[in-house]
Amino acid sequence: MRLANLARRLHLITDSGAVDVESASDGRFDADPQKIYARWPEFRAWAETADLSQGRRYAREALGAPTPAPAQLVAVGLNYRDHATETGFSVPDGLPPVFAKFASSLSGPYTTVRLPEGNVDWEVELAVVVGATASGVSEEQAWQHVAGYTVAQDLSERVLQMSGPAPQFSLGKSHAGFTPLGPWLTTLDEIPDPTSLRLTTEVNGEVVQDGTTRDLLFPVPALIARLSRIITLWPGDVILTGTPAGVGMGCTPPRYLAPGDILTTRIEGLGTLEQRFTAQPQDTAE
Ligand code: ZN
After folding, report:
1. Does residue 109 share a domain with residue 203?
2. 239 CA to middle of ligand 1, Å?
3. Which tens digit of pLDDT belongs to each residue from 223-269?
4. Sheet harboring 262-267: ordered strands across?
5. Does a structural domain hold residue 95?
6. CB 43 within 8 A of CB 25
7. Are residues 113 and 27 in the same domain?
8. How far does residue 43's CA lie from ligand 1's centre (Å)?
9. Who surrounds ion ligand 1 at CB < 5 A?
10. What's the 169 CA to ligand 1 centre distance in angstroms?
C-alpha cells in the first residue's frame, strides 16, 4: 500500500491513480495526512477491503510530505561505515549520533530549494515512519511499531553544521525545504527485503551516492530499540536512518550544491525525490 499527501489530503496511490481517503471512507478517516498514523491498525484493516477503484490522475507537484507535521523528526548520523570514514569521524559502537531535524524543514518530494549562505550538501536516507507508540521496545518487537518507509533527503549546510564548540547539526540541517520526503509512504508488506535496498543520489544526472541498506551499521530494528530506550516514539514520527558514502564534503576537493543544480534522490522500490536549487533572493532578479 502506498499512502500519499496530495494537495494536503490523504490519498491511497493505486494502479488507477490517487484515491481520496476521506471520501472513500465516507468520512470515517480524516483528510489530514498526519492524523492517520494514530489510527494505523484500524486504517490498515479498512484499506484492505475498501473499494479503491476510483483512482484519479494527479500532478506529482501536488505531492507533499507523507508526514507533513510529525511530533518528532529524528535523524541518525554515521550509520554507514564508508560515510563515517569519508567524513573523518570514527564509527560509532553502542549508539550512533542522533540529532533532531526541525519539522519546519519538511517538504514534498518535488520542490525548489533556496540555497542559504554556506555549503549545502546532499544525503540520501531511508526514512521510517512510526505506526505505534514505542517505548522500551526490543529489536524483535520493533517492526510492529513501523507504518512504513519513505525516501528522505537530509540536506545539510556544512558550515553551520560544523561550527561552534558543540556542532550545530540540528540547525545546519533545518533550513526551509531541507528535508524533502516522499513521494509517498510504502507499507512494509510491499518491500520483501528492506535489508538490501539500493539508495542513490544524482547531481545533474551524475551518480554521486550509490549505497545499499545492507551496509547500515544499526538497521531499523536496532535503531528503534536503542532510540525507544530513551525517547518515546509516537505514531507519525519520522526516523532518518543515515546516509551512505558519496556526500559532497567527502569529495576532493569538496563539492556543494549551486544554483541551477538538480538533485535526484532515489531508493529502490520506494520512489524518487527531485530538488532544484536557486540562489538567495538578493542574488537573483526576482
Ligand atoms: Zn543525514
Report:
1. yes
2. 10
3. 999 999 999 999 999 999 999 999 999 999 999 999 999 999 999 99
4. 110-114, 271-278, 262-267, 198-203, 206-212
5. yes
6. no
7. no
8. 30
9. 123, 154, 243
10. 9
What mean pLDDT value characterizes the chain? 95
Residue 159 shares a structural domain with residue 34? no
Ligand 1 centre distance from Cα of residue 244 (Å): 9
Range of the domain at 143: 64-279
C-alpha cell of residue 108? 514534498
Assess whether 148 and 248 both reside in one domain: yes
pTM for this structure? 0.95
pLDDT digits (tens, 9 = 90+) for 111-162: 999 999 999 999 999 999 999 999 999 999 999 999 999 999 999 999 999 9
Give me the CATH number covering residue 68: 3.90.850.10
Distance 19 CA to ligand 1 centre (A): 32
Distance 243 CA to ligand 1 centre (A): 5
And the C-alpha cell for 196?
A: 538490501
